């Protein structure tokens, strides 16, 4: 039985009087911050979230002890202050998309009760790995906080939450930050609203980004229950989540294109011939990305070959089990990225299952890499659709690694959910 509970909480927020501009404090999620960006952010301010989010060992203390000390110091010094009453936090993100067009996306942050083993109202579509979960679990244990949110999508095709989100139009934001990814983040603290909680009763949430954060939250909840038997409805039973509606015009899903070496003995003519039983293969003289985007067909992709041609690949109207096998379900077989991985990279080119490639979100860089010979093959993909994400999540089918790229990510540090 699904017993979803979405509620406000007494969040911790940066105090601009103490911290100064939040441009130097709020960050993107930890897993998209490079070591170089981490160093640059850390140098901006002693209150930059990376000091707690991506801590570094010092003075004989490991990174987790440093993170705990950092959080406790910020609270003690008043750099973080806590809301006096349970609240939601509205979020407006203004950004330039990958096509260079200005966009706006709206959402909000809330605490969500973590599902029990027999509850399935939070669904994911990506595999998780033990090492990042272990790292984030140790950080959570040290800081006793959700420093970043799980990014979830929900259906509101009837616009039930329009007036709730419309509170952003009634007054200026309570705080703002421009993060290093160029996104203008604006935050509004608003009262907890029973209508929002009621709206989500019986609904399903789909994880867009933050599968490891969700897995970590569940692991932390389970560990704390073991230490505190009989304690019901504790803070650790909830997780910070950021919500965006599927039909929000600013929700952008991009494909991470695949860049691969040429397999040993690669021959362009033999490669094209091997594809022919399953694909219509059409040479493209110019603008392969544009051709892929505008081409008809249920499954279409492109390949640029260093020292060779560019080709449009359109999957023929076949039973996909002929190419992909029947060990995975139809939702998985419906994915272009599944056709690429199993049908082309593994079956045709001989790469091992689970091989790691270079994933490039920029079409220009993907094409340039093949032109320059930095890679042998650049495979150009169309974006995975929202309905495909839902279908895989509902079927329990894990997509191939990096099947989706959501931009922008949700910011970390706009509001923090402590677990004590």
Characterise the protein shown here.
The protein is an alpha+beta fold. The chain has 2 domains: 6-252 and 407-418, no CATH class; 256-382, Conserved hypothetical protein from pyrococcus furiosus pfu- 392566-001, domain 2 (2-Layer Sandwich), CATH 3.30.1760. The protein is built from 15 helices and 21 strands. It has helices at residues 16-19, 35-44, 50-53, 63-77, 130-143, 162-165, 194-200, 211-227, 268-275, 288-294, 321-324, 330-333, 336-346, 363-372, 386-395, and strands at 6-7, 12-14, 80-82, 87-96, 102-113, 122-123, 145-146, 150-154, 175-178, 184-191, 205-209, 238-245, 253-254, 257-260, 279-284, 300-305, 310-315, 358-360, 377-380, 405-406, 417-418. The strands form 5 sheets. Strands 1, 4, 5, 6, 8, 9, 10, 11 and 12 form a 9-stranded mixed β-sheet that branches. A hairpin with a 5-residue loop joins β9 and β10. The longest helix is centred in the middle third of the chain and has 17 residues, at 211-227. It is globular. The two termini are 28 Å apart. 40% of the residues are buried.
**Alpha plus pi helix count:** 15
Range of strand content: 15-25%
Task: Report the C-alpha radius of gyration, rounded.
Answer: 23 Å
Q: Shape, please?
A: globular
Tell me the number of strands. 21
Query: What is the structural class?
Result: alpha+beta
What is the domain total for the residues? Answer: 2
The whole-number mean of residue pLDDT values reads 96
What oligomeric arrangement do these chains adopt? Answer: single chain
Give the N-to-C terminal Cα separation. Answer: 28 Å
Please mark out the parts with pLDDT under 50 across 5 or more consecutive residues, or reply none. none
Main sheet: strands, sense, barrel: 9 strands, mixed
Helix content range:
25-40%
């Amino acid at each position: 039985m699904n017993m979803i509970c979405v509620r406000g909480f007494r969040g911790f927020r940066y105090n601009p009087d103490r911290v100064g501009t939040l441009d130097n404090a709020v960050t993107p999620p930890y897993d998209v911050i490079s070591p170089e960006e981490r160093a640059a952010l850390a140098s901006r301010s002693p209150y930059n979230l990376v000091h707690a989010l991506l801590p570094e060992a010092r003075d004989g203390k490991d990174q987790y002890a440093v993170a705990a000390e950092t959080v406790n110091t910020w609270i003690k010094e008043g750099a973080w202050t806590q809301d006096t009453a349970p609240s939601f936090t509205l979020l407006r993100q203004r950004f330039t998309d990958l096509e260079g067009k200005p966009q706006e996306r709206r959402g909000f942050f809330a605490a969500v009760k973590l599902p029990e083993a027999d509850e399935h109202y939070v669904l994911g579509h990506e595999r998780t790995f033990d090492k990042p979960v272990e790292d984030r679990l140790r950080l959570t244990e040290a800081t006793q906080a959700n420093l970043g949110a799980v990014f979830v999508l929900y259906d509101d095709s009837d616009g039930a939450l329009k007036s709730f989100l419309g509170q952003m139009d009634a007054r200026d934001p309570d705080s703002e930050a421009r993060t290093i990814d160029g996104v203008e983040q604006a935050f509004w603290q608003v009262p907890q609203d029973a209508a929002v909680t009621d709206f989500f009763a019986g609904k399903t949430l789909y994880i867009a980004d933050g599968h490891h954060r969700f897995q970590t939250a569940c692991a932390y909840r389970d560990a704390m229950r073991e230490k505190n038997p009989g304690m019901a409805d504790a803070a650790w039973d909830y997780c910070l989540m950021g919500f965006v509606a599927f039909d929000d015009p600013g929700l952008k899903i991009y494909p991470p294109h695949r860049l691969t070496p040429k397999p040993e003995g690669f021959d362009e003519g033999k490669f094209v011939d091997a594809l022919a039983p399953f694909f219509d293969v059409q040479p493209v003289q110019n603008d392969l990305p544009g051709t892929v985007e505008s081409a008809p067909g249920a499954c279409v992709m492109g390949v640029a070959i260093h020292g060779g041609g560019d080709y449009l690949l359109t999957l023929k109207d076949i039973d996909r089990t002929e190419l992909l096998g029947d060990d995975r379900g139809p939702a998985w077989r419906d994915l272009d990225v599944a056709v690429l991985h199993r049908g082309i990279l593994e079956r045709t080119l001989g790469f091992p299952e689970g091989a790691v490639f270079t994933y490039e979100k920029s079409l220009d860089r993907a094409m340039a890499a093949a032109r320059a010979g930095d890679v042998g093959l650049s495979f150009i993909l169309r974006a995975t659709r929202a309905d495909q994400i839902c279908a895989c999540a509902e079927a329990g089918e894990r997509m191939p690694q990096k099947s989706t790229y959501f931009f922008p990510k949700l910011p970390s540090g706009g509001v923090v959910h402590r677990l004590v």
